[in-house]
Design goal:
The chain is of the alpha+beta class. It has a domain of 95 residues. The protein is 38% helix and 14% strand. It is built from six helices and seven strands. The strands form three sheets. The chain has a three-stranded antiparallel sheet with strand order 1-2-3. It has a two-stranded antiparallel sheet with strand order 4-5.
């Protein structure tokens, strides 16, 4: 009796299938298998198996279908934490490994030096050594909230341009209660004709004139 006509038992077929798992089949072998199966009538069981296999392949290919992978709930995380605590409590070997991992992580955090260790923190760090100005230098003139600010070398910071123009016009520094107002409402129009001084508050009915510096009573 030839090998092709010999009937194989179910166990033998399973062994052959397990032995062929992971093996790559060439195109020629696939074509031979296809030709050998031509004209054969498949049983109902074989047809059911093929249909189930095709359904599983459709689920795996492309995007995952909704509900294919169940989403984890809050209760599942709580249950996992409870199981881990019980295992740490009961299993001494597992508890020892967990403690070793915690010590390693703490040691790595403590051993690494801080980014600013050995560095002098100050304004010089923010400056470009080539130009002597901050790295975000825009020519010493920037805009914030529609107001213009200019760089002051003495104070080493940005100051409001409209206050600086008024100080240069008056020849003195402005007081804390003196506010500069723009006539036309344009905040970046810092012409001297467009600027005026306003006082925040008065004290005991007296006002100091910002131009002549004389004191006047307010009725």
């Amino acid at each position: 009796m030839s090998k092709s006509l010999r009937k194989l038992s179910e166990e033998h077929k399973k062994k052959i299938g397990l032995g062929n798992l992971g093996k790559k089949v060439s195109k020629e072998t696939r074509e031979k298998i296809r030709l050998s199966h031509l004209g054969r009538e498949l049983s109902k069981e074989t047809k059911c198996k093929i249909s189930e296999a095709l359904k599983n392949k459709q689920n795996v290919k492309g995007r995952f279908q909704k509900g294919h992978i169940p989403q984890r709930t809050k209760e599942s995380y709580i249950e996992q934490g409870r199981i881990r605590k019980e295992r740490i409590k009961n299993d001494s070997e597992y508890r020892r490994k967990v403690l070793e991992n915690i010590k390693k992580a703490q040691g790595a955090r403590r051993g690494n030096p801080a980014w600013n260790s050995g560095k002098k923190l100050g304004k010089h760090i923010l400056k470009n050594p080539k130009t002597g100005h901050p790295y975000n230098w825009r020519g010493g003139r920037i805009k914030r909230n529609s107001y213009v600010f200019i760089w002051d070398e003495k104070q080493q910071k940005y100051i409001s341009e409209h206050r600086k123009i008024m100080e240069n016009y008056l020849g003195r520094k402005l007081e804390a209660n003196e506010i500069i107002n723009h006539f036309n409402g344009v905040k970046d129009d810092n012409r001297i004709e467009n600027l005026q001084i306003k006082l925040r508050a008065t004290h005991e009915g007296k006002v100091n004139c910002p131009f002549c510096r004389k004191e006047f009573l307010v009725q």
